[in-house]
Design a protein that fits this description.
With 441 residues, the protein is mainly alpha-helical. The chain has helices at residues 2-33, 53-68, 82-102, 107-123, 143-164, 170-192, 199-219, 228-248, 252-259, 262-268, 270-273, 284-299, 312-318, 323-346, 350-369, 429-439, and strands at 130-133, 137-140, 398-400, 409-411. It has 16 helices and 4 strands.
Length: 441
């Protein structure tokens, strides 16, 4: 099993490196092309920031698939139509996203484009053929049922990821966590049970990880570039393609033979069929945010596609969490749900897994209720953490007598970026001046 791991690691590194190296030139191109929309009411950044980060991510996707097609243990995946189906759908959704980032596209037009991209993948064989139902067994779907279910899953996943893309590094980080958990699950099915039908989903998840990891350094707070719809819809489609592949292509009866029985097979397929219509439980947080947004907007008499500031990450900011802390909390919940589902399917001691999830959930709730709490690292570990987590740093204005830059000179703590610190152009001197002006009143 060592050789496949090395090949997947190579694919991951190539995808991440190409995405990372392309993001810088793409940022310059986005600025030159004017792909820097004006600040909207729901935005948390204060200055126009270039988009079109999806161009670099699409380049990383193509590079990762190209490298994988020449590797010994992975190239067999390309004997099927699924990689080509993914690339075709990704190209369509990427073009649609680029047009939306530059000129703006109506919500209904985007929805139609998403359905067309999903339909193209279905026509090339990437579709759900059957569904495993606990207590019933394998339920085969008619071509029409499989097409409708596949298109619905792809559209929901794309919009779930698109909706959660509201803070610097949030969508790329959450999708990366989801892809890592899904890779562990799909890899176990392929090399653990010997089910070759899980090979495409394994490849899709590792390429998706590389796309997100390569873009994340440019997108962390304060972000220098946004992925835009060209990126968020792209990674949402890749994630949905992995879900469709492993759900609709892997025969549960074959899994039952490999796992040793129907009960063991049902246990192993838990992350796939819970919930039934949304097999990929690793996107539970974005999907929950999507459902809440639709209910909230419909209740107010608005269009489900109308933008607002009621998303989960917006609410975290409103109760007092900083930008970075809100992102980390969303990371925590995504990792808890994703890896918890995978652990539940892999470990027979399910009760211990459930108890661990409950304990971590309690920790997460405590973190949510303490937005002003800032953990402090011990002195011996201060060199490993950012300055704001060091217990010895100055938290107020200090007057230094006879030391430092000059006698009687004041040292002030650096002004943080704050809630709206994401910026692409210009300095933040005005924030410092505003703070100084306020202290002199």
């Amino acid at each position: 099993m060592g050789q496949p791991v090395r090949e997947y690691l190579l694919t991951l590194c190539v995808t991440a490196a190409v995405t990372y190296l392309l993001t810088g030139p793409v940022r310059k191109f986005a600025i030159a092309a004017g792909a820097m929309p004006e600040i909207r009411a729901r935005d948390v950044h204060r200055e126009p920031t270039p988009r079109l980060g999806g161009i670099a991510m699409f380049g990383g996707l193509c590079a990762g698939l190209l490298v994988a097609s020449h590797l010994t243990n992975i190239k067999s995946v390309f004997d099927t139509n699924e990689p080509r189906a993914l690339l075709s759908g990704a190209a369509l959704i990427w073009v649609l996203g680029v047009l939306d980032d530059k000129w703006g596209v109506d919500a209904l037009v985007k929805l139609g484009g998403q359905m067309i991209a999903a339909g193209v993948m279905v026509l090339q064989g990437l579709t759900i053929l059957w569904i495993p139902v606990p207590g019933v067994g394998t339920v085969s779907l008619t071509p029409m049922q499989g097409t409708l279910l596949t298109v619905a899953l792809v559209v929901v996943t794309i919009n779930a990821v698109n909706f959660v893309d509201g803070l610097d590094g949030l969508a790329s980080g959450m999708v990366c966590i989801a892809a890592a958990a899904f890779f562990m699950y799909a890899y176990r099915m392929w090399f653990g049970y010997g089910i070759e039908a899980a090979a495409p989903a394994t490849l899709f998840s590792v390429v998706l990880m590389g796309m997100c990891l390569g873009f994340l350094p440019h997108n962390m707070h304060p972000a220098r570039i946004f992925m835009g719809d060209s990126g968020s819809m792209l990674i949402g489609l890749v994630m949905a393609a992995g879900a469709v592949s492993v759900t609709g292509q892997v025969d549960p009866d074959l899994l039952g033979q490999k796992a040793g029985g129907l009960r063991e097979a049902t246990h192993a397929m838990v992350p796939v069929y819970i919930p039934l219509l949304l097999p990929l439980t690793v996107i539970a947080v974005p999907v929950a945010d999507l459902i809440l947004a639709i209910v909230r907007r419909t209740w107010k008499g608005q269009s489900p596609f109308a933008a607002d500031r009621g998303h989960l990450h917006h609410r975290l900011l409103e109760i007092g969490h900083s930008h970075s802390r809100a992102v980390l909390i969303m990371y925590f919940w995504s990792a808890l749900i994703a890896f918890g589902a995978v652990a539940y399917s892999a470990n027979n001691a399910s009760m211990w897994i459930v108890l661990g999830i409950v304990l971590l959930s309690a920790v997460g709730l405590v973190l949510l209720l303490l937005p002003r709490f800032t953990p402090r690292a011990p002195r011996w570990a201060e060199w490993m953490v950012p300055p704001r987590y060091r217990s010895s740093r100055r938290t107020a204005v200090a007057v230094v007598d006879g030391e430092g830059p000059g006698d009687g000179e004041e040292e002030r703590e650096p002004v943080p970026a704050g809630l709206h610190g994401a910026t692409a152009i210009g300095d933040r001197s005005r924030f410092v001046d505003r703070r100084k002006a306020g202290s002199n009143r």
